[in-house]
């Protein structure tokens, strides 16, 4: 079963409806939390993932983080990854792709846009971080994940109309939560 949802993992916790009643209680989340104050007390209907006697904590099969971490400040990346790992079941996969060092985007930033080590601020106020393999490896290893794949993905794209060449560099990784 596939149930996508949108959230800002750098500022929010996973929604209560993701957890079964047993986990809501054990996590201190009452069933009444399904009443969303932003909807003026109107109960939102959400899919029920598990039966009453099943526990869902640590129950997601996989998580995708595609151009996600680069957009948040580096200092909260470890906490963000840990939150994702906390809902990943043992043996579950975290799939990662983000900007790599010397991507054309990094090379276009002006010196005054640099706000940290490999971290830049776009004109709209959003962040861009450019990863090395070692940085990714350390972030995910510190969160308890096992590296299955980690590599640079380099793509040369040519706009035939204007003859411009774009050299893209991304970091691609696949990580696994070890069995208990």
Description:
The protein folds into 2 domains: 15-57, no CATH class; 58-176, Vaccinia Virus protein VP39 (Rossmann fold, 3-Layer(aba) Sandwich). The model is unreliable at 29-52 (pLDDT under 50). By secondary structure, the protein is of the alpha+beta class. 17% of the residues lie in helices and 29% in strands. The protein has helices spanning 21-26, 77-86, 104-108, 133-142; strands at residues 60-66, 88-99, 114-116, 119-121, 127-129, 146-158, 165-176. The strands form 2 sheets. A 4-stranded mixed sheet has the order 1-2-7-6. The longest helix is centred in the middle third of the chain and has 10 residues, at 77-86. InterPro entries: METTL2/6/8-like, SAM-dependent_MTases_sf. This is Methyltransferase-like protein. GO terms for molecular function: RNA methyltransferase activity; S-adenosylmethionine-dependent methyltransferase activity. Pfam families: Methyltransf_23. It comes from Zea mays (Maize).
Outline of this structure?
Helices cover 17% and strands 29% of the residues. It is of the alpha+beta class and 180 residues long.
Summary keywords:
Rossmann fold, 4-stranded mixed sheet, 4 helices, 180 residues, alpha+beta, 3-stranded antiparallel sheet, 7 strands, 2 domains
Secondary structure elements and pairings:
Blueprint: H1 21-26, E1 60-66, H2 77-86, E2 88-99, H3 104-108, E3 114-116, E4 119-121, E5 127-129, H4 133-142, E6 146-158, E7 165-176
Parallel strand pairs: 1-2
Antiparallel strand pairs: 2-7, 3-4, 4-5, 6-7
CATH H-level name of the largest domain... which superfamily? Vaccinia Virus protein VP39
Termini separation: 24 Å
| Secondary-structure-derived class | alpha+beta
Number of strands: 7
User: Which sequence of strands runs across the widest sheet?
Assistant: 1-2-7-6
Count of helix runs: 4
Rg, nearest Å: 19 Å
Q: Helical percent range?
A: 10-25%
The H/E string reads: HEHEHEEEHEE
């Amino acid at each position: 079963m596939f149930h996508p949802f949108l959230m800002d993992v750098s500022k929010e916790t996973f929604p209560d409806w993701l957890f079964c009643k047993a986990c809501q209680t054990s996590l201190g989340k009452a069933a009444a939390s399904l009443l969303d104050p932003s909807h003026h007390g109107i109960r939102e209907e959400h899919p029920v993932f598990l039966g009453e006697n099943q526990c869902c904590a640590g129950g997601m099969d996989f998580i995708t983080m595609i151009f996600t971490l680069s957009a948040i400040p580096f200092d909260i990346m470890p906490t963000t990854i840990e939150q994702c790992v906390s809902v990943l079941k043992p043996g579950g996969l975290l799939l990662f792709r983000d900007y790599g060092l010397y991507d054309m985007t990094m090379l276009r930033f002006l010196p005054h846009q640099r706000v940290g080590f490999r971290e830049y601020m776009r004109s709209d106020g959003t962040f861009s971080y450019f990863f090395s393999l070692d940085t990714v490896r350390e972030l995910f290893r510190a969160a308890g994940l096992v590296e299955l794949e980690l590599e640079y993905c380099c793509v040369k794209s040519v706009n035939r109309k204007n003859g411009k060449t774009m050299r893209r560099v991304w970091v691609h990784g696949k990580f696994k939560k070890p069995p208990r």
